[in-house]
Structures are given as C-alpha cells and as structure tokens.
Amino acid sequence: MGPVYNRVTPSGRQSAIIRRQIAEFERPQDILIHLESILSHLHYNPDIPAERFESNLANVGRFLGFGAQEPERDLGTGPDVLWCMADGHYLILEAKSRAMHDKISKANLAQLYHSEKWFQEHYGADQEYTLVTLQPPSTKEEDVTVSEKVRVIDQQALEDLRANLRGLVRALGTTPLHAHTEQEIQQLLNSHYLSSKQFRERYLKRIQ
Question: To 10 degrees, what angle do helices 196-203 and 155-172 make?
Fold first, then answer.
C-alpha cells in the first residue's frame, strides 16, 4: 500500500514560531552556528550532494517558521521539497543544484511539472501554490514554454537569500534571545524580506 501521506499545513504565526525556536538556543552565536550549518550546503555546486542541498532547503523553510517536507525522499514521489508558508501559500521546490548550465531547458522543468500533478492530487487544484525551480540561470532556451506558475531561485537570488538570512540572525543576536517579542521578530522578518509574501516577491523570479 505504500507509506501514508500526511499533508503539511500552516503551523501558525511566523513570528511566534521563530520566537519559540530561538528560545531553545542558549547564546545568540549558537543560532548563527545553526544557520551556517544549513547554509554550508545551500550552494549551487556539483560537489555538494543533491540530498544535502534538498535537506537544508527544507531546513531553511523550518527556520523561517514554515511547514516543510521532503516528499520525494520520504515517499519516493512528489517534489524534492514542499513548503507551506505562514499565509497558506505552497512552494513546490525542485532543486537542480548540481547542474551547471547557462540556460533552463525543458528537461530542467519536467520534474517540476510532474510534481505539480502530484500536488494537485494530494491538495487539490484550488490551493495557492507556486512552482519553483532552483538552479543558477534565470533565462530559458528558445524552445521552452514556461507555465505562469513557475518561478526560479537563480544564483543571484540564492545569494541574496543567504545574505538576508545571516542579517536576520545577526539582528536577533543583538537582544537576549528570550526578550524578543513577536512584533519585533516580525519587523526583522520584514526588514530582511523574509515574511511569506516578501519572500515570494524578492527571491522568486520570472524565467526570461
């Protein structure tokens, strides 16, 4: 019969989840160490195993207070990573982190469209979702047709995300971890473009 799939749903207010998470650390530098352990494998690099990249992509989502799963790893089918953001919007994430190429091809997007069908079967077609390919380029080959729901986190966007995650953690470290209010954390998320809507607007690019 295969494994039973449990759908991922919004976990609550993003700022509240992050507040609970950072309270588990003893020192501000411990959060930075934790983040760096995640970011160390979040590069587009053929020398980094794909499963390491995907696992830490899921960890970024969890760090930001989102629900995150790895269906392909856990079930043998579905997307590499699935995020449910705090506002209920889903990101269907397929990583091509080891593929070094200049333009996005049909083959680069084939698995993403397959994962879209899997998502619709398990969540329904009426959910709010975005298809996200993670790979260095943001331009496509001439014969590639791209769905309106598809976006890319390219090399520049990934580096921007890494920098803003570090900026968030440094800002959190300027105040005793237990002293942060949800409002303060939300303001820091906003200033580093890491709230749900800002994340989609800042890091998810249209393929050209």
Answer: 140
Burial tier of 91 (Cβ tally within 10 Å: 0-12, 13-18, 19+): buried
| Beta carbons within 8 Å of 100's beta carbon, 6+ residues apart | 44, 46, 136
CB–CB of 112/145 below 8 Å? no
Written as six digits, the tokens of 46 are 């053929």
Tens-level pLDDT at each residue, the chain (208 residues): 567 788 999 888 999 999 999 989 988 899 999 999 999 999 999 999 999 999 999 999 999 999 999 999 999 999 999 999 999 999 999 999 998 889 999 998 999 999 999 999 999 989 999 999 999 999 999 999 999 999 999 999 999 999 999 999 999 988 888 889 999 999 999 999 999 999 999 999 999 9
Grouping H, G, I as helix, E, B as strand and the rest as coil, residue 132 is strand
Residue-range domain boundaries for the chain: 14-203
Report in angstroms the alpha-carbon separations of 41 from 5, 132, 153, 171, 191.
Answer: 27, 19, 16, 23, 25
Q: Does domain 14-203 have CATH number 3.40.91?
A: yes
87-93-98 Cα angle (round to 5): 150
Inter-residue contact 198 to 190 (CB < 8 Å): yes
